[in-house]
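A quick aside before the break. I want you to see a complete sequence-to-structure record at least once, exactly as it would be stored in a machine-readable document. Don't worry about memorizing anything.
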Amino acid sequence: MGDSHNHGFFGPNTGLLINSPSKYNFFTYIRCIKKKPDGQWEKPSLGAGTVIKFSLEELISLLDVLNKNKHKWTTFHTYKNTKTMISISWEDEKSTNLWLTIGTYSKMLTCEQSVVFKLLLNHILKEKIKYATSSDSEKVSEIYENAPSKSSEKYLADSMNSGDNHEQPLNSGANIEKNLIKTALIKTKKMKKKEMTYINGSIKGETQKALLINFNSNGRDVWIPKSTIHNDFSQNTESNQQFLIDDWVLKRNEIIS
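That is the input. The structure line, written in tokens, reads:
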């Protein structure tokens, strides 16, 4: 049985990458990336996207929602005075669609994807409780935290051929780690300059490059370019959902002031 686990979930606009570098390592990394306007995916190897380091307790909180013991779980991670919101919730009480939000990234998992996600997290949690909490776990975990991991690096490269780091990069070695953090901080500063807003609405129509959205705030139907929507969305036209949209297009259409 393998010592590490890597898996990716991809939608039309957003990808979710799961990485457990070792069963002896206490942490599991979940990274969100998105597709750029030119159709190319953001590259984690360049520090793109957002990655969060989840503890054993936080894995249990994720599984609590996946097992439908509760509808939603929300928390925050703080790194260098920057807060990143993490949220997992079902679309509604009867829905089989699951939403995972990390910072400005929001990924919808279908019924099938959420089942695989739950099974994977269950397996990782059981493995880590057995091995990472053993008497030599702290020493072994420290080695895995700081040593380069060829399998992890290869996985990230392969994911881009198929799909910011507020905390710390996946096992990539000391020098690569510094470069990734530096790149991520630059990208984070650039992202802050680009203002976006979560806003509720429902899809009334769709073309290849735009959505016709009925906004709850004013009841208007407005065509919004897909390139300005930065989260995954359900194709269900009856579903009321959140859209993360560039402020400039919302202001131009007088959706926000």
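Two observations worth writing down. The helical segments are 56-66, 111-131, 137-146, 150-161, 174-193, 247-252. The domain at 5-192 is CATH 2.30.31.10 (Transcriptional Co-activator pc4; Chain A). We'll return to this after the break.
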